[in-house]
Each structure stands twice: as structure tokens, then as C-alpha cells.
Amino acid sequence: MDAIFVLEQLLNGLGYGLMLFLIAAGLTLVFGIMDTMNLAHGSLYMAGAYVAARVHEASASFALGVALAVAVTVAVAAVLELVVVRRLYRRDHLVQVLATFGIILIADDVVKAIWGVAPLLASTPAALAGPVQLLDGLPYPSYRLLLICAGLAVAFGLYLLVNNTRIGMLVRAGASNRQMAEFMGVRVGAVFAFVFALGAGLAALAGALMAPISSVQIGMGEAILIPALVVIVIGGIGSVRGAFVAALLVGMVDTAGRAFLPPALRAVLPPAVAADLGPALAGISMYVLMAAVLALKPAGLFPARG
Amino acid sequence: MRKPAGRHSAHLPGLVRRLPWLVLALLAAFPLVAPAFGLEYYVGFVRRVLIVAIAATSLNFILGYGGMAALGHAGFIGVGAYTVVALVEAGVSSAWLAWGSAAVIAGLAAAAIGAVSLRTRGVYFIMITLAFAQMLYYLAVSLRTWGGDDGYGLYTPLEMGAWLDGAHAQVFYWVVLAIAALIFALFSRVAHSRYGHALRGIRDNETRMVALGYPVFRLKLAGFIAAGAVAGLAGGLLASHNAFVSPSLMHWTQSALLLVMVMLGGLGRRWGAPLGVALWLALEEALKMHTDYWHWPLGVLLLLVVFHAPQGVSALFERRAGKEAAR
């Protein structure tokens, strides 16, 4: 385990963390502002990945694939908000779980009907297929570098949007005290619809960008949903800044756990035990992190509601 | 379209009282009459419904009466199932010892998890129970001695005792039915006991119950442990039923499904859990027979329940029975 390997894994962790942030940002806003538990957020991520993969394959243009993925998913989300989610805002959390679980079931079958059961193999754009020599002896896949740059750019854009624009101010007002925002004359219905569509767009972008380095298949939404929920709980529900910090933390911890724990255990434990324990601890690490954070700060790192 | 009020509705309360026994009698008779109609296959199906209903009943107890929204209940099912695997691996062949241990070990796991989780509220409780179940899931995935990701096959059935094993091909069905009926009766009874009322009080207003001097945390923990143990028992039975145990038993969607089935039937209602499980699994089975696309009708059903029957399906029956009884 040398410095190059460590650096490479840290970059991987950063990329994964940034993608988690794109998913978690929408989730935390929907949760924080509308008090709505949306399990179907992962399905929007899946939609983005599928559209991007197929459009890229058909048109040979990666950028077009990403753009269409975001556009299609935002349109789907707008319809979803209008037909179902809008009627859930004032309901109980458990009812929201029930309804959005129903949406997951429907979404999985729709994807199966359109694109089939077999996982898609999304290819990286040809221009970014090769590695980049970051340092002497550290070649890094240029596609993963793009992932990091795109993630950072979107995070910065979101920061500006939330902190420096009028709509961002309304969003923050809704997150910290929804009722008061309503009293002050904020048209919450419009803000809700905007936030839901924004979250869907970010999730779709994450899905489109992750497609070439993960398997595009039914159930990918359910798999990414849990880490995203862990992120928003660690960060503090409703806080975009919290989601950013927590996403990087979770991305780093998860990647580092998978990369460094098994070899470290092999060094100190008998091989048979280490082979069993290593992957288990690596899989668990992010949940341990969440339990630890909740034990110290029960409302997450950056509670949105004072 | 309703029948005019008459003799039937006058007898209704009596019918409602006898309904559990009627259902029990029908279920007990099912394996005997099934071959005559060519329904042998469904004996196994009903057995699975009964086992899942045991787990769902325990979840309904803590969620519906105790207000504890646990999204990790499948974790305890998994603990029970893997306890059976561990004992079989160690050479145990007694079914009662294996299932009993499944309940005890799952109860211990629930004690540890509950002691930590019950200090949190609301969404954080949902998330932390989910997190613990995920930890158990990853533990099972990586334990290669018990099959890891591929699962573990239980090739020789456990022995339930000499006179039971040889008696009839469907003995296991009746054993499951007896256990399910006992558990159902037990939870129905407890729900209306002093303890059950205290639990409902905590659900509705925890602060007030603390002020009244109830040991709120201990009462909740007791319920959580009992529910975990019963889910573990269901897990042990499920291991015998499937003759196979894999980590997928504990996947978070299984916990969510259990929650969905309870809510479909009717949260905090006596018949909610068994009704929800039976309805969901029967629909799933029927849809699977006709189409590969069996998820979306169930999804639509959930949306319909949310918007048109938010109290669950059993509430629809209760409302009708109540109306007719009132006339």
C-alpha cells in the first residue's frame, strides 16, 4: 500500500462522494422543505442512467445523452409531482413511504418494459477513455476526473443558487420554518414543485454520470437510495451544506473502507478470519459513521432547523 | 344495493366473535381438502403466508400500537434464520431447539438494537433501525462459512419429534398454523391489556405518559424485544420452509415490504397484519402466474390504498360491519 494507491483511492472516494451529494441534495431539500420521505428518489436516478446510456449509444454523443437524461427525468418528475407527490405533502411519513414504495414498483416495471431486464453496458465517451498522468506514476482515468470536476461545478452552482438568488432564499426559508414562510406570503406550492424538479434533475445527472462506471440495471435506484439517506441524516435533514460535507465523508469512508480495511486486517489477523471480516466491516463502515454522528449530534452535523 | 336490515345483521356481532375460530378451522382443514381440488401446491403457499404473517403481526404490534416505525424488521427475521443455520452447522437436529433459539437470539439482538435506537425519534428512528438491519445484511453477505452471498441450503429437514414427523406429510403446516394462531391470539390479548393501553398512550402522547410516571423507555424496549423475538421465530420457520437461507432475507426492501403489507392491511388493527400479508402475497402469486410485469399493479394498489383507504383494507371491512351492526 503506497502513497500513490492511497491518493488514487481518495480521488475515487471524492468522486463517489460528489455523486452521492447530487442525489442527496434533492432528497434533503424535499425532506427538509416538504417534510416528505421520497423513497422513489432512487428511481429518478435510475431513469437518468437509462436514458443517458441509451441516448449515448444511439447518438454517439455523451453530452446529448446527459442533457436528455436530465430533461426527460425532470419532465417525468414534474408529472409525478403533479399527480402523486403533491397530494402527499401533508400526510404522515409512513403513508409517504407506502406511496413512494408503490412508485418504485411501478418505475421498475416501466423501465423493464422499455429497456428489458438485462443490465445495460454504458460506455465512457471515447474522448475520455484513456488515463491522465496526474502525477509521476499516478495515471488516473480521465472519465473519473470529469466526474469530480462536474460534481464540484454543480455543487458550487447549487451553493450560489441556494445562497445568492431569490428562489434560493425562498427554499432556505421553507427549510428552516415552512409555516412562517407560508405566513410571509411565499407561494409554497410553486417552491415545492421547483425543488422537486431540481432534485430530480440532480439525481438524473448523477445517474447519467455514474452510468459508465456502475452497472445500469433495475434495482440500482434502491441500492443508491440507502447511502443517500445515510448522507442526509448525517448532514442534518434539510441542509444542503450538511449534505455536501456528509456526502464527501460517506464517499471517503466507504471507498477507504473497501480499499484499505481488507489489507489492513490481513496484516493483523489470520487470513480466513480477515477474508470474512474485511468486506463485512467495509460494508458496515458508513452505518457505523451514521450511528456515531447521531450519538454525538442527534439532529445531524448541520441541523437546518434552529 | 344493501340488504334490508333483518335477521342476518342482528347475528353479526356473534359472527364477528366467532370469525377467528372459523378462519382457524378453515385453515386447519385446508391441507386435507386441497388434494381433492388439485390445490396441493397452495398448501406450501398458505404456509408461507402464515409465517410472514407472524413477522408482520409483531411489526404491527410495535408500529401500530407502539408507534415505533422500525424499517429494519427483516433484520430480525434474518437473525432467526441464521441462528437455525448456525445450529444445523453445529449438528443440532431438533426443530424446537432451533426455532426456540432463533427467537431468543433475535430477542437479544432486538434488545441491543432497541437500547440504542429507541433513544431517537421520528425519521431518525426509521433510519437507525434501517442502519442496523443493513449492518446485519452485510455481516451475512461476508460470512462465507454460512454461504455468504450465495446462501446456505438446509438439506435435511429439522426433526419435530418422533410422533410428529411421521404423522402426516403436512405436519409442518399445522405446526406453523398453531404457532401463528398462538402468536396472533397473544398479541391480540396483549394489545388490550394494561401494557397494550400504556403502549398506545406512548404512541399518542409520549410526554404525557412520562409525566404520568410510566417507564416509557422500558415499556417501548420490552415491546421492541418481543417483536424482534417473534420476527426471529418467523425467520427460523422461514428457514425450514424454504430449506434455504440467504442474506436477501434481510435486504432493506424486505423490511419495507413488511411495513407495506402491515399498512395495506391496516395499521394498529387486529386483523391488519394477516390480512395485509395474505392479500399482498396472493396478489403477487396470481400476477406472477400471468405476467412478468407483476410489480406495477401492486404499486398502483399501494397508491389506491394511500388515497382511498388510508386506514388499510381491514378498516373497510370494519366500517361495513360497523354500519350493518348499527342498523
Description:
The complex is a heterodimer of chains A (306) and B (327). With 306 residues, chain A is an all-alpha fold. Chain A contains eleven helices and two strands. Chain A has a two-stranded antiparallel ribbon with strand order 1-2. In chain A, strand 1 (131-135) and strand 2 (138-141) form a beta hairpin. In chain A, helix 2 (41-59) runs parallel beside helix 4. Chain A is globular, with a radius of gyration of 20 Å. Chain B has 15 helices and two strands. Chain B has 327 residues and is an all-alpha fold. The longest helix of chain B is centred in the C-terminal third of the chain and has 27 residues, at 216-242. Chain B starts with 6 loop residues before the first helix and ends with a helix. Chain B has one domain. Chain B has helices at 7-10, 12-33, 40-65, 73-89, 95-117, 122-142, 162-165, 171-191, 194-204, 206-211, 216-242, 252-265, 272-290, 295-308, 313-326, and strands spanning 152-153, 244-245. A two-stranded antiparallel ribbon of chain B has the order 1-2. Helices cover 74% and strands 1% of the residues of chain B. Chain B is globular and about 55 Å long.
Shape descriptor of chain A reads globular
- Major sheet size, sense and barrel closure of chain B: 2 strands, antiparallel
- The number of helical elements of chain A comes to 11
**Overall tally of domains of chain B:** 1
The average pLDDT of chain A is 88
Low-confidence blocks of residues of chain B: 1-10
Q: Oligomerization state of this entry?
A: heterodimer
Q: Structural class, from secondary structure content of chain B?
A: mainly alpha
Biggest chain pair interface: A-B, 45 and 46 residues
